[in-house]
Amino acid sequence: MDIVSPTIIVGHYGSGKTEFTANCAGWLERRGQRVLVADLDIVNPYFRIREQKEPLGARGIRVVSSNYEDDYYLDTPALAASLRSCFEPEEGRISLVDVGGDPAGAVALARYAGLLKNRPYRMWMVVNANRPQTARAESVLAYIDAIQRSGRLEINGLISNTHLLRDTSPEDILRGDALVREVQAASGLPVVCTMIEERLRPQTEHLELLGKPFYISLAMRPAWLDGAGEDRGKDK
Fold first, then answer.
1. How far apart are CA 64 and CA 196, in angstroms?
2. What does the alpha-carbon distance between residue 147 and residue 16 come to, in Å, rounded to a whole number?
3. Which has the closest alpha carbon to 71: 50, 86, 55, 56?
4. Can you give the chain as a three-state secondary structure string?
5. Burial class (CB in 10 A: 0-12, 13-18, 19+), 212
6. N or C: which terminal CB in the chain sees fewer CB atoms within 10 Å?
7. Contact at 8 Å (CB) between 222 and 165?
8. Per the omega criterion (within 30 degrees of 0), is the bond before 6 cis?
9. pLDDT band per the 50, 70, 90 thresholds, residue 222
């Protein structure tokens, strides 16, 4: 993947943008990169990259957010001064920025748009065809336009990530690939990669996908959620 600093990740709620950010941070760290991760989501209180502060920090990856004194249980709907550093150049460091999951969440980006004038950056949209609001190419294109207007920055790449969490199948991945092909044809935006859970590698290595496979683990999916689902099933 052609990653520069900053690389900004946007997408609809449930698209997998935070999952991509967590996995990408680890991928970069394993390649010897120094990584800074910014949680710019001040809209959605669930499944945010700040919740990965401790496991990422154990690998030397710093996570900054709007939380009071870096405690993600004490949340504030504001932008901490430390977030600005993620949009400023620093030699030898890659910044990944996880943004709120809709045009309202992308408004936070507008505050930093001026810092990126005449500077290279990446802003990639994660597309999940299993989300009702991004199930069709025209809907994805409208979403791209709305995020760009809110954030005052241009999306310059797509990430294919059609999934159903643990129930994702190769058929889901192929359906997502068909969708991003339509979006690329209409927009000219390149498909950066296709996110695929590692367990599906044997079933997907032969697939001809527009975006090169990026195999991930589900860092943002707590194990207790899977257990809770099984318990509910037993009660029925």
1. 27
2. 16
3. 50
4. CCCCCCEEEEECCCCCHHHHHHHHHHHHHHCCCEEEEEEECCCCCCCCHHHHHHHHHCCCCEEECCCHHHCCCCCCCCCCHHHHHHHCCCCCEEEEEEECCCHHHHHHHHCCHHHHCCCCCEEEEEECCCCHHHCCHHHHHHHHHHHHHHHCCCCCEEEECCCECECCCHHHHHHHHHHHHHHHHHHCCCEEEEEEEHHHHHHHCCCCCCCCEEEECCCCCCHHHHHHHHHHHHHC
5. exposed
6. C
7. no
8. yes
9. low
Q: Give phi and psi for 141, each to the nearest 5.
A: -65, -40
Angle at the Cα of 154 from the Cα atoms of 209 and 41, rounded to 5 degrees: 90
Segment 100-144, tens digit of pLDDT: 877 888 888 999 999 999 999 999 999 999 998 899 999 999 999
Choose the weakest-confidence range: 4-18, 46-60, 167-181, 206-220: 46-60
Instruction: Please name the residue that has the structure tokens 């950066």.
Output: 192
- pTM, 2 dp: 0.87
